[in-house]
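Lab notebook: predicted structure, single chain.

Context: the supervisor wants predicted structures on file for every construct in the current expression panel, including those that have not yet been purified. This is the next one on the list. No modifications to the sequence; it matches the entry in the shared construct table.
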Amino acid sequence: RQIRHWQFDNLRYRSAAELAEVFTPEYFRESSGAALSWLDAGNDAYFSLFKDARQWQHWQALSFSWLRDEKFSAVKRWIDLLAETSVRRFSMQSCTIGETGYRALVEHDFIARLEELELLNVYLGNAECRILINGKYQPRRLKRLNLEDCILSSGKPEMDGATFVDFIQSAFFSCLEDLENRYHVIGPEGMAALVRSPSRLTMRYLSLHNSRLGDAGLKVLFDNAWPALREIYISYDTFSAATLNWVKQTPLFGQCPEVAVF
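Prediction complete. Output recorded below exactly as produced.
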């Protein structure tokens, strides 16, 4: 019986010998993915357990949380392994990716196979976003994109609204069904770009938290047709009472079984 997707927490507190007893050829063969937490990116002994990606080339899902190292190259080598796999769902949370890591994401054709991508509490600024937009390889099947800026923990500025507009116009937004965004600035211009994107026709779930839409952005959203959209969650934004009352009268509001705006 196949082990579908195991969660491994606090791996940095385990010796390489202990992990070798878990990540055996049998485990790699019988599993279809893993969520790895607090794995020391710079530890060569840990990396040696996974570096033969042929063992897990059939995996469908991989998640890293707190994969960190002062040398971005230490994290990059883990991302490079994906080029030899069938991973369709990839997540990085609270990881130190750096520009080096973002280049690794788009210099292999595995990005074209991805169906789900999560970048949560990882720094994605203007330069990093431009690397994704201009990468050698681009997504072709991306259905779910979940972004969370780490400005609260890094103290660095997030990407600006103009860069996010360009991001929306890229292949990352060509056929999305599920979009979640927290703290990155979308604004009215970004919402207008989303309306112009092919994803307006395929989007089923939209969740925007502190995305700085304002009245203008909310009106752009609800004043357009989204044929597949069924769930809308807009939170930590600022809207007038008049705009909120207007939203309730729109066809899109009536179309969606789940709508929460506050």
